[in-house]
Design goal:
InterPro entries: ATPase_NBD, Gcp-like_dom, KAE1/TsaD, Peptidase_M22_CS, TsaD. This protein is of the alpha/beta class and 345 residues long. It folds into two domains: 7-126 and 304-322, ATPase, nucleotide binding domain (Nucleotidyltransferase, domain 5); 134-299, ATPase, nucleotide binding domain (Nucleotidyltransferase, domain 5). Helix content is 44%, strand content 19%. The strands form two sheets. Strands 3-2-1-4-5 form a five-stranded mixed beta sheet, with helices on both faces. Strands 8-7-6-9-10 form a five-stranded mixed beta sheet, sandwiched between helices. Helix 2 (48-70) runs parallel beside helix 3, helix 6 runs antiparallel to helix 9 (239-265) and helix 9 (239-265) runs parallel beside helix 10. The longest helix has 27 residues, at 239-265. The chain starts with 6 loop residues before the first strand and ends in a 24-residue tail after the last helix.
C-alpha cells in the first residue's frame, strides 16, 4: 500500500517577495509569489518598512491563490512551514505571524525553517531527491555561501561565505554605476551578452587564499574607479564590456571555489541556487568547469531560484519526513539564523 506524503504549506517573507506554496513530498502543487520589487526600484534597494507593509497586504490573497491553484483546502494541510530567518526583521515577522495564525486555526504543526537551506531544498522539486552529500553554492542579493549538505533536515555545514558584499548586492551596486535598472542582475546579464568579458581584468577577491570565503566589495570598487577614470579621461564607456568583465569576475570566483569544494570533499554533485543562479554566465561556466571535474551540476529553473514559498514548503517536507519536532507557537524570528540551524528555536 502506497503512503501519501504529507501536504505541506510553505510561507516565505524574508525580503521583498511574499511566497506561498503547497508541496507533497517532492511534488510542487502550486507556487504563488507577490513581489514588491517595483516599490523598491526608485530607492535602488529594498526598504524594510515598505517590504513589511507589502507582505501584510499580500499574505492572505497569496495564500488563497496558492490553495486554489493547488486544488486543495486549507483543512487538507498536514503541516505549515515558514521562514523564521535569516532576513529582514519586520518582513519575517509578518510571515511568521501568519503561519502561527494558520497553524493555530487549523490545529496543524508549525515548522520555522531556515531560508538559506530552503534555497537548496527547492532543487528537489525540479530534479528529484538530492544525493548525499552534496555541495551547494547559494548566491543571492543578501547571501553568498558555500555549503556541504549531508542531510537537508539535520546536517548542513557552512564551508565559506562572503566577508562583505553578497554577489547579488554587488550586481545591484554595479548596475547603479552603469545607469542600469534595479535589481541589477538581469540588466547586467543582458548587457554582458554584447560585451567582451576579457576586455577588462577586474580583481578576483579572495581568489587564492585557501578558504571558501568570498569578497565582492573590492570588485565593486574597481568597477567604480574604472567608470570614474573613463569619465575623467573623456573616454566612451562601453557598458556591455564593463558588464561582461564584471560578470566574468563574479562567475570565475564562484565556480572555481565551488568546484574546489567538491574535489576536496569527494562530492560529485553541485547545486547552485539563489537569485544570481539565474545568471547565464554563472550557469555556463559552472557547467563547463563541473564537466571537466566530473561533477554533475544542478540548477533549479529561474523562478525557483528567487525567493518563493516552494523552497520553504520543500524544506518543510524534508523536516516532517525526518520526524523532527514542530516549533513552538511562541517561536521568534531570527534575522541572523545560522545556516547550520535548519530549524529555528
Amino acid at each position: 500500500m502506497t503512503t501519501v506524503p504529507p501536504l505541506v504549506m510553505g510561507i516565505e517573507s524574508s525580503c521583498d517577495e511574499t511566497g506561498v506554496a503547497f508541496v507533497r513530498g517532492c511534488e510542487l502543487l502550486a507556487d504563488e509569489v507577490a513581489s514588491s520589487v517595483d516599490q523598491h526600484a526608485r530607492f535602488g534597494g529594498v526598504v524594510p518598512e515598505v517590504a513589511s507593509r507589502a507582505h501584510l497586504e499580500a499574505m492572505t490573497p497569496t495564500v488563497r491563490r496558492a490553495a486554489e491553484r493547488a486544488g486543495v483546502r486549507l483543512s487538507d494541510v498536514d503541516a505549515i512551514a515558514v521562514t523564521a530567518g535569516p532576513g529582514l526583521a519586520g518582513a519575517l515577522l509578518v510571515g511568521l505571524s501568519a503561519a502561527k495564525a494558520y497553524a493555530l486555526a487549523l490545529d496543524r504543526p508549525l515548522y520555522g525553517v531556515n531560508h538559506l537551506v530552503g534555497h537548496v531544498a527547492v532543487d528537489q522539486l525540479e530534479h528529484g531527491p538530492l544525493p548525499k552529500p552534496v555541495v551547494a553554492l547559494l548566491v543571492s542579493g543578501g547571501h553568498t555561501s558555500l555549503l556541504l549538505v549531508r542531510d537537508l533536515a539535520t546536517d548542513v555545514h557552512l564551508l565559506g561565505e562572503t566577508v562583505d558584499d553578497a554577489a547579488g548586492e554587488a550586481y545591484d551596486k554595479v548596475a547603479r554605476l552603469l545607469d542600469l535598472p534595479y535589481p541589477g542582475g538581469p540588466p547586467i546579464d543582458r548587457a554582458a551578452r554584447d560585451g567582451d568579458g576579457r576586455s577588462i581584468h577586474f580583481p578576483r577577491g579572495k581568489w587564492g587564499d585557501g578558504s571558501y570565503d568570498f569578497s565582492f566589495s573590492g570588485l565593486k570598487t574597481a568597477v567604480a574607479r574604472w567608470v570614474e577614470d573613463a569619465d575623467r579621461a573623456g573616454r566612451a564607456l562601453s557598458v556591455p564590456d564593463v558588464a561582461a568583465a564584471f560578470q566574468e569576475a563574479v562567475a570565475d570566483v564562484l565556480t572555481r571555489k565551488a568546484v574546489d569544494a567538491c574535489r576536496e570533499h569527494g562530492v560529485d554533485h553541485l547545486v547552485i541556487s539563489g537569485g544570481v543562479a539565474a545568471n547565464s554566465r554563472l550557469r555556463a561556466l559552472a557547467e563547463e568547469r563541473c564537466a571537466a571535474a566530473g561533477v554533475e551540476v544542478r540548477v533549479p529553473r529561474p523562478r525557483l531560484c528567487t525567493d518563493n514559498g516552494a523552497m520553504i514548503a520543500a524544506l518543510g517536507a524534508e523536516v516532517v519526513a525526518a520526524g523532527l519536532p514542530p516549533s513552538p507557537l511562541d517561536l521568534a524570528t531570527d534575522t541572523s539564523l545560522p545556516v547550520s540551524s535548519v530549524l529555528a528555536g
